[in-house]
């Protein structure tokens, strides 16, 4: 009896020490703790796949030990994260450093990556044919190289840059550093890409020097102000962009953008005098609630001085695209098909480079979303890992008279490294 009592007391003593030692790691993470939102954000970015049981259960309180397991997975996948998400992983690693240490995960492994620059790239071989080109030959062959730079500076700040080189086949390349900017928690500053709404009003990947500031969560409001040198003229634009994620399948966008009053003659198109080039708003949506189908559409109006000179009134435009499936960079033999329509009155004057399509650069209507209408058809196919072939035909003409032939065909092979 005495022997069994002694064994029992020893077990109670040992278990008591153990429960005290592990009380911290197995304590619950409070329901409103910022960690839950952080992990959900990493999950949406594809960096983590869920809690230890493989699921996300936002209505269940988990322990610090369980959360540390999720953070460890995020650290292991940190190479997939952009600068903002890397900073979030670092913040989580700091919060759960003790639990991670108990798991045998070295937090310093991730911290050592801060300050290192990551370089990736894309090559594009491009062919276009335009029935009645604005200038020169009907056909063009081009080669483009993009080198992307990504360098975390602090936990909450990163640098992004892009080196651009493009040329006609057999010719010397035009080169530039067309992106170089800072990314903070809710702002960007420097030479950066600007994309407003669904892209109808303004969407250009290079050489905008300015600032954006974003507030909100489910409804995100972004203010933008920048300058862009077009060569013959400058665009000095300020505006606002609103994105509302109604649910996982539907989002809405609202855009307003206005340029300062300036000499309009350098823009061409027969413009003269001083005034605004853009005084434009647009509303759009994206919907993916039908299996394998994505729908994108946007409508806009330009009430600028330039629009009134060219159109006599407000110039209107709208675009729509329906896409089936989509080529996946990481999965050879995947593909996507789409059909679209656009109509833009003379004077809409959108500055659009890569909207929900890519347009031949030498079409005779001038701006890609000005005085143009017609259908488009496209297909994309992943020919090898990180390599996509895209073919597109656009049956366009001018919107004003229907007499200008802007039919064009493009083919491109893009591959990432």
UniProtKB/TrEMBL annotation:
<feature type="domain" description="SLH">
    <location>
        <begin position="22"/>
        <end position="85"/>
    </location>
</feature>
<dbReference type="InterPro" id="IPR051465">
    <property type="entry name" value="Cell_Envelope_Struct_Comp"/>
</dbReference>
<feature type="signal peptide">
    <location>
        <begin position="1"/>
        <end position="23"/>
    </location>
</feature>
<dbReference type="InterPro" id="IPR001119">
    <property type="entry name" value="SLH_dom"/>
</dbReference>
<dbReference type="Pfam" id="PF00395">
    <property type="entry name" value="SLH"/>
</dbReference>
<protein>
    <recommendedName>
        <fullName>SLH domain-containing protein</fullName>
    </recommendedName>
</protein>
<keyword id="KW-0732">Signal</keyword>
């Amino acid at each position: 009896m005495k022997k069994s009592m002694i064994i029992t007391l020893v077990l109670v003593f040992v278990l008591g020490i153990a429960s005290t030692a592990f009380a911290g790691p197995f304590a619950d993470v409070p329901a409103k703790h910022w960690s839950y939102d952080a992990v959900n954000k990493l999950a949406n970015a594809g960096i983590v796949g869920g809690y230890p049981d493989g699921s996300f259960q936002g209505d269940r309180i988990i322990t610090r030990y369980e959360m540390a397991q999720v953070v460890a997975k995020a650290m292991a996948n940190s190479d997939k994260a952009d600068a903002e998400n890397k900073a979030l992983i670092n913040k989580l690693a700091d919060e759960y450093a003790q639990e991670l240490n108990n798991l045998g995960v070295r937090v310093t492994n991730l911290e050592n990556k801060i300050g290192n620059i990551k370089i990736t790239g894309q090559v594009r071989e491009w062919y276009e044919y335009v029935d009645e080109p604005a200038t020169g030959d009907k056909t063009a062959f081009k080669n483009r190289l993009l080198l992307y730079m990504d360098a975390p500076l602090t936990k909450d700040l990163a640098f992004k840059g892009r080196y651009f080189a493009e040329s006609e086949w057999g010719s010397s390349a035009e080169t530039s550093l067309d992106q170089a900017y800072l990314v903070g928690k809710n702002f960007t500053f420097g030479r950066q890409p600007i994309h407003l709404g669904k892209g109808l009003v303004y969407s250009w990947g290079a050489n905008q020097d300015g600032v954006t500031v974003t507030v909100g969560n489910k409804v995100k409001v972004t203010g933008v102000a920048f300058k862009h040198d077009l060569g013959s003229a400058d665009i000095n634009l300020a505006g606002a962009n609103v994105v509302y994620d109604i649910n996982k399948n539907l989002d809405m966008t609202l855009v307003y953008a206005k340029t300062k009053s300036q000499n309009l003659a350098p823009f061409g198109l027969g413009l003269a005098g001083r005034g605004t080039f853009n005084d434009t708003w647009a509303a759009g949506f994206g919907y993916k609630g039908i299996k394998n189908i994505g729908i994108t559409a946007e409508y806009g109006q330009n009430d600028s001085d330039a629009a009134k000179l060219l159109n006599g009134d407000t110039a209107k435009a709208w675009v729509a695209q329906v896409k089936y499936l989509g080529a996946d960079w990481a999965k050879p033999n995947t593909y996507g098909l789409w059909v679209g329509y656009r109509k833009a009155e003379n004077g809409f004057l959108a500055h659009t480079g890569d909207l929900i399509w890519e347009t031949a650069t030498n079409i005779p209507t001038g701006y890609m979303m000005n005085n143009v209408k017609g259908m488009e058809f496209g297909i994309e196919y992943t020919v090898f890992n990180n390599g996509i072939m895209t073919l597109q035909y656009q049956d366009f003409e001018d919107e004003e008279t229907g007499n200008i032939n802007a039919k064009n065909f493009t083919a491109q092979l893009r591959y990432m490294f």
